[in-house]
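Protein: NADH-quinone oxidoreductase subunit C
Species: Flavobacterium croceum DSM 17960
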Amino acid sequence: MALETAYIQEKLSQKFGNNVLNFEMKRDVFSFEATSDFTHEVIQFLKEQPDLNFHFLTDLCGVHFPDNDENHQFEVVYLLHNWIENTRIRVRTFLPASNPEIQTITDLFLTANWMERETFDFFGITFKGHPQLKRILNMDEMESHPLRKEFPLEDQGRTDKDDRFFGRIPTTTL
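Structure follows.
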């Protein structure tokens, strides 16, 4: 018997009630949202439930939505895979801009270690309980997080660039 999305939704809704919501098929992957307080428990349930069997964490990443309301500016996306049934699932959770933090899942998936560090490094999302949460690619002295939308795309102080080579011609020469 193939693992049906309706069955997954039913199991999650029975166990977590209103803490799991917005179930949908998105780009051929079953997707839903979990409240940030229950994300760890939801992922643990998906992994440890014998009939669900999502034992592989494919990816974990962050997203910044600066135009969303205060409580939905940051998103953490978890992609899980059930190899037995060849079924993928996407778990999404939103975090507030004032305090973007969520519980680590390194106790469930060791591979989450570097993925959480990278998400922290580029988005500034804190993973509570992470064994070594520090920057992984950027310098420790760096104060900003480069994948946040407020991060400047170019260094305005550069003197070695010529706008003509970037397709930008100053209006004074036209």
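Remarks: The chain has a mean pLDDT of 89.
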